[in-house]
User: Which sequence fits this backbone?
């Protein structure tokens, strides 16, 4: 199994990494404000695979009244950035969160673990989930191979959608709502 250690974070989150605090700030701002547009009041967030804690830090700076719980499977990340050490494939939170963030995490898990993670994410999501999860097509056509870890599972979008659709409807831009959750216009959400 890949070690999410100092070398990993230096390699994939350094100067050439796919994500940095500024990019996450743009994304988090968009997600938070889209939630507001839909009438979803974000008061609690679960950040799954929190890594360097960029989502948590953005919320603490931008909306300090929002409670953020950050988890990661990496012992290094938990010690360095102060997260709870949890594996979303085997851990299910007791409560629900207004927003669940799962940003570039599940591609590291085997098929059975991803399915279990989807079950646990669904149990944790009250209103909205942000999910970034590159597909096989993304790795072949979009991903910058110089700044992205390629030692992951390459699955089709169809495979992911099949399992996600048991719990969620896609509302665009990586956002998903629970099936019986916030009502959406027909053209805002997939069926």
Assistant:
């Amino acid at each position: 199994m890949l070690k999410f250690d100092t070398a990993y974070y230096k390699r994939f989150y350094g100067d050439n990494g796919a994500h940095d605090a500024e990019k996450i700030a743009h994304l988090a701002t968009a997600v938070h404000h889209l939630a507001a547009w839909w009438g979803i009041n974000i008061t609690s967030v679960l950040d799954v695979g929190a890594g360097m804690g960029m989502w948590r830090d953005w919320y603490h700076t931008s909306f300090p009244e929002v409670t953020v719980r950050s988890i990661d499977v990496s012992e290094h990340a938990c010690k360095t950035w102060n997260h709870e050490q949890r594996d979303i494939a085997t851990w299910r939170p007791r409560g629900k969160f207004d927003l669940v963030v799962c940003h570039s995490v599940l591609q590291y898990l085997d098929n059975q673990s991803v399915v279990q993670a989807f079950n646990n994410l669904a149990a944790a999501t009250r209103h909205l989930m942000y999910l970034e999860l590159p597909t096989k097509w993304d790795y072949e056509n979009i991903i910058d191979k110089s700044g992205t870890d390629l030692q992951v599972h390459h699955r089709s979008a169809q495979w992911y959608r099949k399992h996600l659709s048991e719990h969620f409807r896609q509302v665009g831009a990586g956002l998903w709502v629970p099936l019986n959750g916030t009502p959406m216009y027909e053209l805002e959400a997939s069926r």
